[in-house]
Every structure is written in C-alpha cells, then in structure tokens.
Amino acid sequence: MAIDVPESMYSAGIPVHLVDFERTMSIISHRLVEAAQIPLCVVSINLDHIHHFGTSGRWNGALEHAGSSEFLNLIDGAPIAAQARRSTGRVWPRLAGSDLIEPILEKAIGHGSRIGFLGGSLETQQALQTRFAAERPDMAISGWWSPERSQLSNHGLSKELAAEIRAAQTDVLVVGLGKPRQELWMAEYAAHTGAKVLLGFGAAVDFMAGKVARAPRWASDNGLEWAWRLSREPRRLSRRYLVDGPSSYVALRASTGVKTAPKGHTSREPYRIKSARAVPVAGSFAGPEDTADVAVLVVTYNNAEDIPKLLKSLREETADHCLRVIVADNSSSDATLETLAAHPDVITVSTGGNLGYSGGINVAAKLAGTAEHLLVLNPDLSVSRGAIKAMLARMRHSGAGAVVPRLLDDDGQIYHSLRREPSLSRSIGDAVVGSRFPDRPAWLSEIETDAESYVYARQVSWATGAAILIRSELAAKLGPWDERFFLYSEETDYFRKIRNAGGTIWFEPLAVMNHERGGSGSSAGLTALMAVNKVRYAQAHHSRLYSLAMRGIVAAASVARATQPGHRMAAGMLFGMRSWENLPKASPGARTLHRAEGAFPSGTVIIPAYNEAGVLARTLRPLANLAASGAIEVIVACNGCSDGSAAVASTFPGVVVLDLQEPGKTSALNAADAIATRWPRIYLDADIEITAGALAEVFAHLAQPGALAARPTFRYDTSGADLRVRSYYRARTRIRGMQQHLWGAGAYAVSAAGHARFPTFPEATADDAYVDSLFMHGEKVILDTPPLLVRTPRSTRELHHTLRRIYRGNHELAPGTAMSSGLANLAASITGPLELVDAGVYASLAFAGKLRRGNSLTVGGGWDRDESSRLA
After folding, report:
1. How many helices (H) and strands (E) in the chain?
2. Contact present, 683 and 714 (Cβ < 8 Å)
3. Quick one: average pLDDT of 480-507?
4. Helical residues (DSSP H) of 501-543, grouped into ranges
C-alpha cells in the first residue's frame, strides 16, 4: 500500500508529509498489522536532513527513489514547521523522533511486535537493556546490533546484517546510525531486514538511554533546541548548526511548494522499461537487425590486450539481457582489429582516423540499431556479473536519464569517478591543493573523494565517461557528443546536456566494473589538452568574463607545475605563446572502413634499411599482423648492413627481406621495386612509425582512378631533445608550405601511374625531394591521416648531421628541383616573441647546414645521419 497522506510540502526537493500525531500513529499501526507490503521507513525532516538530502545535497533524491521501501517524512525542526505554516496557513505540529519513539514502542508492544535496535554504542545499548528490563518487561526484543562503520559501508556485510535482523523475526527496527547514514542504509536494506516499520530517529536512542539530556521545554517551544544542543556538544554539532544550517535554511525558504495528492498517491513515477528483448542466446551478442535491450558502444585505440577481457565479461551479462556490441576503432596500430575479427558477432567499424572519444562514440552510435538503452564503455573495463542488471534496475526505480557504475582500480580500491560541476572555486581548490586534503569542502574540490559517496545510490552531477548507461530516446534528443573536446571534458559536457534536458544522473554502487585506466595513454600533449579543455568547457557554457577567470586559474596551476612537460606546454598555450591547434585533435581519414565492406586496402610497403637493427622492430611492429595475414606486402631492403638488420626483419612473419651486399639507398629502393607485386607502394624510412589506419588511408586514396602521389601527415617527437632542437622544429612546423610536399615525413607513396614517371630511382640522396619534384601541386595529396611519428635528433650536433645531409641531397638535384621554405615564409611564421626566437634558431641552423653541406661530420666522411633518435 502507498502512504495515504492528503497533503505534502516539497521543501528543497524533499517531500514532507503534512500529518498530525494521530494520523502518524494510525499509519504506523496499520503497517504493523498489514501483510505483504514494502517496509515503511519513518524519518524526521529538519535542516540537517535538507543539508544531506535537499536539492543541493549530496544525497538528493536517494530516498524518494529507493524502490524497495517507502518513507514517511515528518516535520521535526522548528524552521520546517514554520515553513509549513507559511505555505498552508495552518499550524502543523513538530513530530520529533524523541517524542514519537515511546508511543510507537507502546503500539508495537500492544500488537505483539518484535522490536530490534540497530546502532548506538554498546554502552548505550546496555543502558537501554537495563531500563527496558525494569520498565518494559513485556517488550519482545528481537536483538541488538552495533555494527562498525566499515560493516555498514560494505554491501555484502550489510546484507548479512540485514539477514540476521530478518532471521530474528524483527517487526520494528529502531535505527540509530545518525544522518545521513541511517536513512541511506534503510533505503538500501530495509526490504532485506523483513521489518515492517523502521524508525530512523537518530539521537532518540541516546535520549532514551539517558546518555544525552533533552532540551528544556522552553527551548523547544521557542525554536532554540539547536542552541541548547550546540551548547552541550559544541565540537560535534558546530558544523551542523553554524555552517550547514544557514545554507539549508536559505534553500528551505527558496524552494517550497504544497501538493495535494489523490488517495493512494505515491511520489515515485518510475521509468518503465519496455520488453524489447530479442530471443537471446547466452554468450552471444545480438545482430544488427535484432531488437536489443542494450547497445554497448566501445571506442578502441590500441586496445588489443584489453578488448578480450571486456568482451568476455559482456558475454556473461547476456544471461540477463540481450546486448548488441559495437566497437569503433580509431585507427589502432596494434592487433586490435585482428583481435576483434575473432568475434564475428561484434559489429566493428574503423573510423579511418583518430576521431577521439566523442567522435568514436558518435560513429558507434550510428550502428546502435533498435535498442532501448545505450551503454558507453571504455575498452579497458571489465564488467562484474550483474552490473548491467543493477544499472537498469536503478534506471527503472529512479526514472534516471543516465546511470553510472562503481569503478574499481586494478588493486580493488575505489576509483574516485564521481565529479561535481566545475566552478571557479573548485578549480582554485584543485589547483592549489591538488590531491592533498581530499576531505576539503565540496566547493573547493571537483572530485568526490568521501568514501561514503561510493556506498549508496544517489544523484550526481557527472562522472568520468568510462561507463555510462543512457536511455536511447534521451540520447537521440541530445544529439551527438561534442567532438571539439577530442579527449577530456567531453563527458562533462554531455552530462550537462543530460541535466539541461531535464534528465537526472544516478550512481549505482551495486553495478561494479574494474577499470585499468590505460586506454588513452599519457603524454605531454594529452596533459596540456586536459588543461585547455577545462577552458574550452567554460567558454562553451559561461560568460566571457567567467571563461577568462577560469583560463587564469588553469594557467596559474600549469605554471606552478611547469617542471613537468605537459604542464609547461599547457602554460604556453593558455598564455597565448603556443597555438591550441598543436594539441591532439581529431584526424579523420578519407573514408570510413567497415570490416563487413571488405579487406584491408592492398599495397606494398618498401623499407630501405642501412644498419637499422635498433629501430627496425618498432617500425615493423604496427605492420606485422597485416604482413603475416597477407593483407599487404612488406619488403625490407637491407643495403650493405653490418649490424643484423636483416635478422631483425626476418623475425616478422610475412615480411620479405633483401640482404643486399651493395650499399646505397637508391640500390635498395630499386631492388625492392623489382620484386614488388602490388600497387600502390609506400616508401618508408626505417626509423619512421606508421599506423595501420594511416597506411589504409594512403592505399585507399591511391587506389582511386587518377590518383598519383600522396603521403600521410606526420608529427615531430622532440621529447628528450635540447632547447635549440625543439626550437628549430617548432619553427619548421609553423612555416607555410612545409606541409604541401612529399618530402620531410620519411614516407611517400605513389600509384602505378605515378611511378611511371620514374621507372627507376636515380642516384640521389634526397629521393623524397626528387619524387616530389615530378608532380605538380594538384597531383600530390597530403592526406589527413593519423600522423606518422618522426623522431627528431636529440642534440644540436646530431641535428647538424641531419641538415648537412639534407642540404647536400638538395644540392645534388637539378637546379630548381629541391623545395625550399624561403625566408619570406619563415618571416611570415613569426606572430609573437616565442616565434621570433624560434625563427632565429631555425635560420642560423639552416644557414650553417647549407654553408657546410659539402663537409661530412661523420668520422671518415660519408653518410651523415642522426644516431640519437635511433636509441632504443
């Protein structure tokens, strides 16, 4: 039965039942004699309750949507009674637990009910036992329980405790655990105790035991009971009454309304999950045409080791629900796609580039098909048995728009995944304090670190995007995830959209997932991106003045940690010294590849190698599975090597190795061309790393009619390099025209028609500049692919080696063949003081390289190359 209360007052989001003493006793009495019902939890509403459970409280909505119990919320505090009088024009009595407990116990004794006591110290319980033995020998006591806080915070131990209470045939359970713990425990475990009525009266047990003196009548009648209790227990109660109380009073006055409900009304309006389930096969995933309960969306990027564990855990969940699994792969360079190919019931789509987390989710969502819910999961998760069932149950009970689970780290510890909405004060707190003092006030920290926050179900502002269950109809209303963020802050933005659409986000602790937190990797660029995206989020949702303040706070925090490369990079960007365009961002490919559409684009990779044993393995590793499967042809041409390069290449199945005695890169290229059987062909330096996604884009483009020449994009890795080297390559990146030629990336590709322009490679050091010179601007394409990794020299001396070789090679070409950036383009790249310094360094080093291009720095003369970047 539902609580039959004709009128309720809603204060700060909390329903307060407007009843008098007689009506309260009648409701409780009926529950004691009625059978087959959900338990009734009786609690007192005061300012402390509003602080914990009100609109801005941590546990807002947790009691109203408990699902397995009903709450009778009684007026306790004087401010609540006064607000009820103002709202209704009637005087409503205060029904404090300390006044009600004795009459309720009398009722229970009269009905022959068994009474149990949960909470309070052993000393308090012993005092009560002595009193009841003397004053109430007819009271049937089912038991006394005084659990440790650790027991109450553990779901398994709490269920065992509830089972003990049930086994003792308890009808009335007096719960004295203090707010908010007693209400939260009742909401979660009341139904497991078997009790018909649970009384969450907190201090009433101490009053009955004589451990705490009650306020005199004059103090209670004049609303000064709080002052009396504060004077008796200042250390324990000062925060409640002097810090939390005033803000709760403001919330009470600001948001109160009265609602009249028909007989049998209940405030819960649960979300009803339709029966959408296809006929499942345990252990298998639904196909594209089936109707599924949940469509699981996963974005991968080099997760070959992670994905089997996730899929195994999801298969176990198919015993409860029909799941469809869609994986969007952001051009992984490891064996992710090959690993997924072993799971034919997983819908796999290659994004053709690296679209970031948001972009990958948007691609996967397009293939979700007919499903009532979408479940976004990180690939480095494993789902504990029953987690999806628990999340769906929470959505059903609460009417939530989205539900997030409890995440555990590798060591089984709670991962602090819950977050508060970003604000200036929280950003200052996090910037100044960092991870220290985790128990600081909520307005000084964005991260929820309190252990109890991860014990009970409740509404949250947002959570990390590792796992999110959302109703499909709501997801359709919200539209795609914002791809501007690429990685970090995208979930903050999406959860905000959920709240703005009227949806709530709930945390479900019974849904447990293990999170390895290794999916996105770590780098200086990603650290800087995290800082910049905080500012981007502020710009998207706040005023210009607010955004400037947030930028200043984040910039100051980055400066304070400038000894770390990522924070140093962030500081430069936030102070306008570096362009945000250099941050990691979406790199879409020319087309989207779907596994069902066909095989990997065919072609040949030719790698000339001269004593490259130290780096050849890292170049071949991203190509290994494709070569072994025969999807592509890989030829390594070792020219006069004396270091075992051929032996390293031979360890990769499917790779063709030419061990040539004759030295020279030109000989190696021509020898490989002579035995190659496929088109198009990409010529890749042995120290350059390419992803499978980039290779696919190059081959796919050159397979089109009329395509002649192309190369992927690239990025310089200057980690570990000295200041002058980093300055040189920053300037080089800014020069207009550097990204318009086939040279400079360590890789270029041609189709059969393009190769017809040079039947063989001529004797030239700069083969890339030579090939580039054969094509007009419109005949060669720089594809927007996942970038190649070009490791730069680590020292200025090694850079001199490289520049002398480059300029010597350019000089060998016919006049006008070699491409130059020019002083005009260098000058045009100067937009600030940092750019001016970098341009000066670039010009001086380039001039020295040109001036001494005829002189080798290598001992004995000959081939100049950088050795520092080849160190393992």
Report:
1. 34, 28
2. no
3. 91
4. 524-541
Q: How far, in Å, CA of 442 to CA of 444, rounded? A: 5
Q: What's the residue count for the chain?
A: 872
12 near 252, Cβ under 8 Å? yes
DSSP state of 814: P
CA 61 – CA 53 distance, rounded (Å):
7
Q: Report pLDDT for 870.
A: 63
Closest CA to 598 of 343, 324, 786, 350: 350
pLDDT tens by residue, 833-857? 777 888 888 888 888 767 665 554 4
Q: Which helix (H) or strand (E) holds 79?
A: helix 78-88
Does this model's pTM top 0.85? My answer is: no
Residue burial 510-544, b: 16+ Cβ < 10 Å; e: rest: bbbbbbbeebbeeebbbbbbbbbbbbbbbbbebee
CA dist 589 and 834 (Å) reads 32
What would the pLDDT profile of 631-671 be if each residue is shown by its tens digit?
999 999 999 898 989 999 999 999 999 999 888 899 999 99
Q: Are strands 323-329 and 197-200 parallel, antiparallel or unpaired?
A: unpaired
pLDDT band at 872 (very low <50, low <70, confident <90, very high): very low
8-state DSSP, 333: S
CA atoms within 13 A on the CB side of 157: 10
DSSP secondary structure letters along 220-283:
HHTT-HHHHHHHHSHHHHHIIIIIIHHHHHHHHHHSEEEEE--TT--S--PPPPP-------TT
- CB contact at 8 A, 71 and 63: yes
Amino acid letter at 777? H
Among 42, 157, 158, which residue's Cα sits nearest to residue 103? Answer: 42
Are 692 and 340 a contacting pair, CB within 8 Å?
Answer: no
Q: What H or E segment, with its residue span, contains residue 397? A: helix 387-398
Cβ neighbours of residue 263 under 8 Å, at least 6 residues apart?
Answer: 4, 6
- Residue 623: which of 338, 303, 352 has the closest Cα? 338
Helix 356-365 / helix 490-500 crossing angle, nearest 10 deg: 50
Averaged confidence pLDDT in the chain: 84
Residues in CB range of 522: below 8 A, 6 or more apart: none
Q: What is the pLDDT of residue 250?
A: 85
Q: Is there a contact between 146 and 176 (Cβ–Cβ < 8 Å)?
A: no
Instruction: Tell the burial category of 213 from Cβ atoms under 10 Å away from its Cβ (0-12, 13-18, 19+).
Output: exposed
In angstroms and rounded to an integer, the radius of gyration of the C-alpha atoms of the chain is 35
Which among 389, 402, 406 is positioned nearest to 455, based on CA atoms? 406
| Cα(88)–Cα(445) distance, integer angstroms | 39
**Pick from 605, 791, 804: nearest CA to 687:** 791
Alpha helix segments (H runs only) across 630-721: 645-650, 665-675, 692-702
Residue range 550-583, pLDDT digits in tens: 999 999 999 988 888 888 888 888 887 777 777 7
Residues 572, 834 contacting (CB under 8 angstroms): yes
For tokens 């989207």, what's the residue?
592
pLDDT of residue 373: 96
Give the model confidence (pLDDT) of 497-541 as tens digits: 999 999 999 999 999 999 876 544 567 888 888 899 999 999 889
**pLDDT tens across 587-618, in order?**
654 334 333 344 689 999 999 999 999 899 98
What distance in Å separates the CA atoms of residue 429 and residue 432, rounded to the nearest whole number?
5
Which pLDDT value is given to residue 519? 47
534: left (phi over 0), alpha (psi -120 to 50) or beta: alpha
- Tokens 């362009």: give the residue: 579
Rounded Cα distance between 263 and 258, Å, is 16
* CA 772/CA 281 separation, integer angstroms: 56
CA gap 431, 444 in Å, rounded:
10
**Does residue 270 register a pLDDT over 70?**
no
Higher per-residue confidence, 36 vs 714: 714
